Structures are given as structure tokens and as C-alpha cells.
Amino acid sequence: GQQLNQSPQSMFIQEGEDVSMNCTSSSIFNTWLWYKQDPGEGPVLLIALYKAGELTSNGRLTAQFGITRKDSFLNISASIPSDVGIYFCAGLDLYNQGGKLIFGQGTELSVKP
Amino acid sequence: EPEVTQTPSHQVTQMGQEVILRCVPISNHLYFYWYRQILGQKVEFLVSFYNNEISEKSEIFDDQFSVERPDGSNFTLKIRSTKLEDSAMYFCASSETEGGRQFFGPGTRLTVL
Question: In this complex, do B44 and A99 lie within 8 Å of one another by their Cβ atoms?
Fold first, then answer.
């Protein structure tokens, strides 16, 4: 089945620093989604990407859908303590697997004030 | 802001017992999903549901699992005879279209003793 590799697994940064994380896939997706999960809660949608090459921002967050359709990255600029949490990428192959989201393993972000 | 709700937030059950997890998707959404997340692991797809039928299901979703939309608002996941390894967070999600953004509920933590 399709696999998503997300890296890094964890990051420890200083408040104010920029952060970058990415996901790569063994096969093509036609939608990439980025979620944030706080402990004991459900994933919260941050950004959705639908076209290869698309670059989308949501406040301090920027995500891109890779040209090959097999990768995506998420950048967080000027991190703040409330950015702490686990970030998941998720891909969707609508034509072959319907609405089934495939999730990456997550990137755990810690921000030191 | 409309949101997906789930009840109960925590369910403790004995091995072999039946459990029903409940979800109220966002009201104008037509596509519904269940995912699970074992502690410390990534989110895994279980099943998608549209027009009162299962659209896709994973290998995890065996004969012990079933889903139902008993009325116009609720979407349920039933596990007939729970096993220890069913202990996990179960998330319901919904989307307006099949390839559209999926919004997740807060989850039900299922503990099987």
C-alpha cells in the first residue's frame, strides 16, 4: 500500500525560529492535507493543497504541493509556544482509493520560550 | 464554525463486549469516515461511507466492525466483540465532497480491559 514518510520525527526549537517539515510518498497523491494534533484531541486541519506546484499560506504557515505530486512540505515562520504539537501530513489518491486519507508518522514540535 | 462531535469522549469496556461509538458529522457534509490512532502512532483509515453504503474499508475493518447512519444526523461505529488491541483513539471525520477537506472530531478514547 501507499506509504508516507514524514520528517523529521521531532524538532526542538527556540521561539521565533522558522520550522520546516516534509512528507514524501512512494506514489502520487492528488490532494495533500496538513493537520496539527494537540495531546488527547483530534487532528485540526491547517492547509489543503489540490494542485501540483500549489503554494498556500495560512497565517505563519506555508505549505507546498510538490511538482512530482509525491511530496509536500510545511513551513512555520517565527514559531511561538502555542505551535507546540504534532503535525501530520496526509495524502489522498481520489481516483484509486476514494476518500481514504493516508497519514504520515507525524512531526512532534517543541518550542522553547 | 460547524464541527464534528463525538460521544463518549472515553469508553472503558471488557474484552468481548460490544461498543458503539457515536459521531455527529458537519450537517451539510455527505461523506463520513472513521479513523483510529493507537497511542503514539499515526492515524489509520478504517472506513468511508457515502449514500448509506461503505465506499472503502481497510484491512483493519474486519467482520467485527460495522458502521451505520441510523438517522439524518448520527454516524456510528460498532465493534461487536472488542479485543485488547482495539484500544485506541477513534476519530470520526466528514467532508462535503469525496476529495474535499476532511474535518475531524475530538475522538473517543476506547480502552479494552
Answer: no
